[in-house]
């Protein structure tokens, strides 16, 4: 399949091109039900007509609160055609978070699935303050719904999908999609992207990830987040096939791989490890050309070994809501970059004109390759800005247009880097910037240790590392052995002064994965050091 070299400025143009070029190519397989590009284009046109009759148009904000399904895709594409902006709502959010997005995001309409099995959408909405829901012009629902929902008479999605009104013209490029940041320490920010930028990023993914007309791209991560949406758009904007279902777990993902001959997918390292551990035979992965992983969870050393045994091609990834997910992947070919770091997070920027650098957060100086600092990136896939927040937008960029990622890492070249940790998670010990991951990996190699997180605790003027450890089943605490192991391979100031045994790490659920709340661990570390004599 050849894809036009010119970049469309709208998803309507992309969809029309695909429907004309390869009408019977499958666009989406949702719960094993295929929809072709011809069918999807016709559905989106009718839905856009139905939305337009309700008064939805350019500049309106639509809260899209659905799991991964055909209706999510139809709604997004219909809003794009009309010039409306989608506020993507995480299906794991509850009433406080939904109220924040609908209220602070100034949503006019809400699209939801009240009877969806597994998530009590209607119950959650009933807990949203009435002054928020009364500000909506209406609620659009899939399937059966009560006669009244949060003070509104719901409008059936299925009726709008069969509208007989005139098909609206393509509005063209606009700010079309807002992600929410994870908000682990403050209110989430709304990250706004326009259509052209999203499509430009999707086009860059073709060569970077080796897509062609035979590709079957599994989208198991929620579309409401950058990780899931980039997976979706990399297929749909280019005329390839996306495979998805509303709820995914290890067993269902393995079944999708078996049924549909999956070639590509992207997930966190823990999810891919579970696939490898649960697969009945390595032959299950014979169609897989590339699995990308991001290190959202604690280090899992078994991943690479099991991937090699299954002959599953892996590469480390990087992305963010502001830059788009999958903007970087570690090269698999030495002609493309340094392959010695292939299995760590970070990567080679996929846009030819994109550039990066590392800056010392203390001195402000740009650092030479190999030295750790804050990663700054300039790329065509960058956000328009934070919605309704120009001050935060200005603070996020350097004077010459680089986005300040807030991530600690080092540049391998001006197009490739290694991600180490969030800058706020790094530690300054004895005057040195320390990446906690190197300490965590040392401890996780010790007998009995399942996972470890290390943070800096403070007592007066003293700053020291504290390790939080989850034990393997039946394992015994052996802090003396762990301490000696650290002393053998690490500088003395990196050796934890205390090992705290926990059953789990404090975490927050984002659209992409469960993220460990290091700020809460630091509070715990301060308390521990404060109680030590």
From TrEMBL:
<dbReference type="GO" id="GO:0006631">
    <property type="term" value="P:fatty acid metabolic process"/>
</dbReference>
<dbReference type="InterPro" id="IPR025110">
    <property type="entry name" value="AMP-bd_C"/>
</dbReference>
<dbReference type="InterPro" id="IPR000873">
    <property type="entry name" value="AMP-dep_synth/lig_dom"/>
</dbReference>
<protein>
    <submittedName>
        <fullName>Fatty-acyl-CoA synthase</fullName>
    </submittedName>
</protein>
<feature type="domain" description="AMP-dependent synthetase/ligase">
    <location>
        <begin position="17"/>
        <end position="387"/>
    </location>
</feature>
<dbReference type="Pfam" id="PF13193">
    <property type="entry name" value="AMP-binding_C"/>
</dbReference>
<feature type="domain" description="AMP-binding enzyme C-terminal">
    <location>
        <begin position="438"/>
        <end position="510"/>
    </location>
</feature>
<dbReference type="GO" id="GO:0031956">
    <property type="term" value="F:medium-chain fatty acid-CoA ligase activity"/>
</dbReference>
<comment type="similarity">
    <text>Belongs to the ATP-dependent AMP-binding enzyme family.</text>
</comment>
<keyword id="KW-0436">Ligase</keyword>
<dbReference type="InterPro" id="IPR042099">
    <property type="entry name" value="ANL_N_sf"/>
</dbReference>
<dbReference type="InterPro" id="IPR045851">
    <property type="entry name" value="AMP-bd_C_sf"/>
</dbReference>
<dbReference type="Pfam" id="PF00501">
    <property type="entry name" value="AMP-binding"/>
</dbReference>
